[in-house]
Amino acid sequence: MPVCREARQGIRPAWFSRLRCGQPYGCPYSERHGWRPYIGILIILLIPTLAHASCDYVEVLSGASRGPLSAPQADYETVPLRIALSSDARPMLRHIFGHAPCGDWEYQIEPFVESVTSPRSNVEIGCALGLKYTFDTGGDLRPYLKASSGPLYMSQHTLEQATLFNIGSQAALGLQCRCGRDSALLLELRLRHVSNASIAAPNSGIDNSAVLAGWRWKVR
User: Which helix (H) or strand (E) holds 174?
Assistant: First the structure.
């Protein structure tokens, strides 16, 4: 199996050479990473567990996402499952600015798992912290904006990223359709950028777009 000059000299790992040559990184997941990634995954999962007790609404979203990767890799495609735990942000905004802007402002903690289907079957797991603003239209249809960022672990090796632990930052535009007093249907378009904050090279980032649909309901 050919290995590039950087890998022979220890500058790049061997998997980097095999990806650049279009060859799969076929070593079993457990042999590649051992037990260390699971510590980070456990920390990621603890954040939403602690937040659930104080949230007002829960949103569950799923759909499909896709982003280009450099040749010879196929596009990066995933099937997301995201659970957003929402809490009213207006009391804090009043404390900071003296008043709450119109519309609904919510803090969101969003744990997620994404099944990676391309370029090879893998998985993402992470948690994002962010803010959601829903416009007050006076009707059942209400557009909203979201912005969030947080850590994620991806088991997929790519030429773009030297690390498997990265930061995912996203922005979303959506539509919320009220169904009853305390529930609503959600439809949103989301853009995401993944990088490692330049802690290791390469770090050209992965950009993808997603279409998500889901359900929102009140828990307290």
Answer: strand 165-178
Over residues 92-130, the pLDDT tens digits come to 888 888 877 788 999 999 999 999 999 999 999 999 999
Hey, which residues does 217 pair with through a beta bridge? 58, 183
CA angle 78, 155, 22 (to 5 degrees): 80
Contact 46, 39 (CB under 8 A): no
- Element counts in the chain: helices (H) and strands (E): 5, 8
Alpha-carbon distance of 57 to 110, in angstroms, equals 12
Spatial distance between the Cα atoms of 212 and 215, rounded to a whole number of angstroms: 10
| pLDDT tens digit sequence for 150-206 | 999 998 889 999 988 999 999 999 999 999 888 999 999 999 999 998 888 899 999
For the chain, list the strands marked E by DSSP.
Answer: 57-67, 76-88, 104-118, 122-134, 141-154, 165-178, 183-195, 206-218
What residue spans define the domains of the chain?
A: 1-34, 38-218
CA dist 68 and 55 (Å) reads 35
Query: Which residue type is seen at 138?
Result: G
CATH of domain 38-218: 2.40.160.20
What's the whole-model pTM score?
Answer: 0.78
User: In the predicted model, what is the mean pLDDT of residues 133-142?
Assistant: 93
The predicted pLDDT at position 31 comes to: 41
Q: Are 135 and 142 contacting, i.e. CB atoms less than 8 angstroms apart?
A: yes
pLDDT attached to residue 20? 53
Torsion of CA 29, 31, 37, 39, to 10 degrees: 130
